[in-house]
Amino acid sequence: MNKHLKHIDRWAELIIWILAILLLAFNDPFSEPQFSLCIFKQMGFNGCWGCGLGKSISFLIRGEIEKSLEAHAFGIPAFGILTFRILELFIHSIKKSTFSNN
Amino acid sequence: MANVAQIMPQIEGEEMTYVQGLIKELNDNQAQTFANTYLSRRKDPQTILLTSLIGFLGIAGIHRFILSQVGMGLLYLFTAGLCGIGTIIDLVNFKKLAFEYNQKVAQQVSVIIRGST
């Protein structure tokens, strides 16, 4: 068990992005207010140009393109890029597990 | 037998183990060539750490560009590092990010060395 836990950091990034997408898929973007994970906002800086991204992706997953763009202009490419990264990490981790030299 | 600790002393941990496995069958000449090439192409984990920190100043994703992850770099750039969350994740994860990149470099260099001798 410990041997596997030691290597979990290999999967950490993959798990985090998958969790993020899942959370946004099952989260309801229509209901206000959305709590913000943004560290800049929490520090009082309301001008963060990343905020709205979660909602944007959430809307996109539900097919609301207009609302998605309204929430954040970069939401659509963001979703694409994250999906691509998830696939990249997934394929990379499968490949690694077939080699003995981990 | 080629030894990482002798010819590439700045490499440690997982990276060291991995590279050691790749060069152990090489003769001294090949190993030295490997070292020269690999060291010039690898990214130092500390560089990744420091450039990811810049994300907290608003310009996020530089470390991802350094690792040739242009898509992720742009994502971070346009979203202030995913509102800082991506920056935090990468701060925790910087060694693995560097290692992922360096593994590919090591494999490529290894193929080149074995192919040319």
Question: Helix and strand layout, with pairings?
Answer:
The complex is a heterodimer of chains A (102) and B (117).
Chain A: H1 2-6, H2 9-26, H3 39-42, H4 53-61, H5 65-71, H6 75-97
Helix pairs in contact in A: 2-4, 2-6, 4-5, 4-6
Chain B: H1 4-7, H2 13-23, H3 28-41, H4 45-53, H5 62-66, H6 70-78, H7 80-83, H8 85-115
Helix pairs in contact in B: 2-8, 3-8, 4-8
Describe this structure in words.
The complex is a heterodimer of chains A (102) and B (117). In chain A, 65% of the residues lie in helices and 0% in strands. By secondary structure, chain A is mostly helical. The model of chain A has no long low-confidence stretch (mean pLDDT 84). The model of chain B has no long low-confidence stretch (mean pLDDT 94). Chain B has 117 residues and is mostly helical. Chain B contains 8 helices and no strands.
* Backbone CA Rg of chain B: 16 Å
Put simply, the count of helices of chain B is 8
Question: Main sheet of chain B, how many strands, which sense, barrel?
Answer: none
**SSE string of chain A, helices as H and strands as E:** HHHHHH
**Beginning-to-end CA distance, first to last residue of chain A:** 17 Å
In total, the number of strands of chain A is 0
Q: Helical stretch count of chain A?
A: 6
Assign an overall shape of chain A: globular
